[in-house]
Amino acid sequence: MEKPWIDTIGSTQCTMKRPADTYYITDNMATEPLRFPNLVAGYQRNPAHALQASIYSKYTPNEWFQKQVKFYNEADLNRHYSERLRNDTMRVIREAEEKIHQGQRETGKKIGERITDVTFWRNEVASELERLIMENERLYDCKRLLEKAVHDIEGPLHIAEECLYHRESRKATELVHDESEQSLLKEIDNLKNNQRKLQLCLDRCKDQLRNGRASQNQLEIDLKNKEGALGIDNVCYQLNNYSRGLQYCGGIEKFDGCVVEPETWAEAANRIVQKSQTERTKSCQLRSDAEALINHVAQDMWDSWTQTNNALSQRSSEMLEAKSMLKQHLHKIQQEIFDVEKNLELTRKAIADKSYALKVAHTRLEARMHRPELELCRDYAQLSLQREIEDINQQVERMYKMLKELENQHQRLLRTRNSMEHDLAIKIDAMYIDKEKVAGLRRAYPVNALFRF
Length: 453
Prior knowledge:
4 strands, two-stranded antiparallel sheet, two-stranded antiparallel ribbon, mainly alpha, rod-shaped
């Protein structure tokens, strides 16, 4: 508090504030300005100035008392304010301590709830991952089975085509489009269709296995992320004010590195699990379809094989019967040729024998031509000789005709025999092809080695 200085000139008093550099005028005399003492080095006192300052710088008792009262009041005011400030400070400390502890408890509770949620979804993802891995392994086994089935069809298909190729080597009339050939063609067509169906199913299995492994990769990544987050949350849940490694991270509360909301996070986890379940359902259905297809293909191949073998057996029986009948007819033809040849010999001998009778008749007739004169009578003997010669000529001519017909028939029989022998030969060759080459290949037909589960 600034105090006024009282300067007296004559009987006049003036009150003024003392500035830092003020000249005091007394009795028209100028004095030097006041200087505050240098507490460190001191200063040289001016006796005149000190005397004048001691007279005019003193306070009155009232001012002194007021100054003391002011000090007391100011001390009381500051003390009461300090006491109230101390109480407020302690209250704020207690409130801050309680609020911080409450915040830590709430945060710990939320972290615990988060740990429970993450643990639940971690277990769901782990269980689904285990089931999906098992399903992918079963689907992989199914894929290998389909690959084996597609590969194993090549053997029966090659055998059926080889059988058809062998039957193409039949000759002449035996090269017939019979039921056996129709069965072989149908069997080849069924094998190719079944192989194509198995290949399509195999392609579907490969695509489904690719999708299943993609879902498995998503589940593994999600499981790894959840285990990492669960480990971090467990560490955060166990932290307290006395834990080691605590540190300040300035401005961390202003940085928001979160990318999803809890609802979105749960939906994402649920979506991954549902996708895996969908892929597992598709894989299970595909495995069921593949097994049903393999069983159907195996049964169809077995039926085609049995039908073709039955047709070949029936054809072999027919050819065996035809061969037997042909042999019988050939034997009869051979006997007939033998008989015709005997008849030819008899006919030639009969014709030759008739020459003697003709010679006799001619000799008789020529001899009677030498009868003399009127004895050349056309008597009954002459007429009889002439008729005899005519009858002999007619019979010989008739026998020549029969001989000609017998010779022609003999040639026809020989041609028939040759034809039947040739037909018998090609039948024997066809029977050899069907019974030895074709049936020999089909005895080793690898149906029983296919499609083992």
